Amino acid sequence: MTIKKFKWYDGDSTAEEHILLSGFGEAILKFQTESPDLGNHNQYVVAIVLFNSQITGDEYDISALSAQTGLQRSSLKITLKRMNKKKLIEYYTSRTDNRKKYIRGTKVLFNQYLNLLDTTKKGIKLINKKLY
Q1: In Å, how far are 36, 73, 124 from 32, measured between CA atoms?
Q2: How far apart are CA 51 and CA 112, in angstroms?
Q3: What is the mean pLDDT of the chain?
Q4: Into how many domains does the chain fold?
C-alpha cells in the first residue's frame, strides 16, 4: 500500500514508513513547542534568523528582522518583548548608527536552538535506521 510521496524522500512510502515519518514530524513539533524558551512558532523563527545573523555577522533592527522572518511588526514586537523578558535576546546600538536599536540572541537562546537541532539530528538518524 502506497500512501503519498514526500518531496525529500526518495520513493513512495509504505503505510509503515508513513507512520514513522509522521511520528517524527509530530515529535519535533512537540519538542519545539514544549521547549521552555522557544515556546511558539514566532520565537522559533526569530531564533533561526538571529542564529544565522551571528554566523554571517549581519545586524538586524526590527524592520530588517520583520522582513527576514515574514512576521508583521506588531506580532514581532510582542514576540521580542516576551523573548527579552526571558533573556533570550538583547537590544544594542551599533557603533556606526547609535540611533537604531538592533537585536541579537543571547547564549540562552542559542543553547535552546542548538538543543533543538541536536534533537532533530537524533530523530533523523533514528528514522533513517528504521526506514533502511
Answers
A1: 9, 23, 15
A2: 11
A3: 78
A4: 1
CATH value at residue 60: 1.10.10.10
* 7 located within any domain: no
Residue 78 CA to residue 127 CA, distance in Å, equals 36
Has residue 2 been placed in a domain? no
| Amino acid at the residue 99 | R
User: Over the stretch 15-48, which tens digit does the pLDDT of each residue have?
Assistant: 676 666 666 666 666 666 666 566 688 888 898 8
- Amino acid sitting at position 131: L
The domain of 55 spans 13-131
- Rg (alpha carbons) of the chain, rounded to whole number: 18
Q: Does residue 78 contact residue 88 with C-beta atoms inside 8 Å?
A: no
Look at residue 118 and give its three-state secondary structure.
helix
92 and 101 Cβ atoms separated by less than 8 Å = yes
Q: Is residue 6 part of a domain?
A: no
Whether the pTM exceeds 0.90: the reply is: no
- Flag whether 4 is in a domain: no
C-alpha cell at 72: 508583521
Cβ(59)–Cβ(69) below 8 Å: no
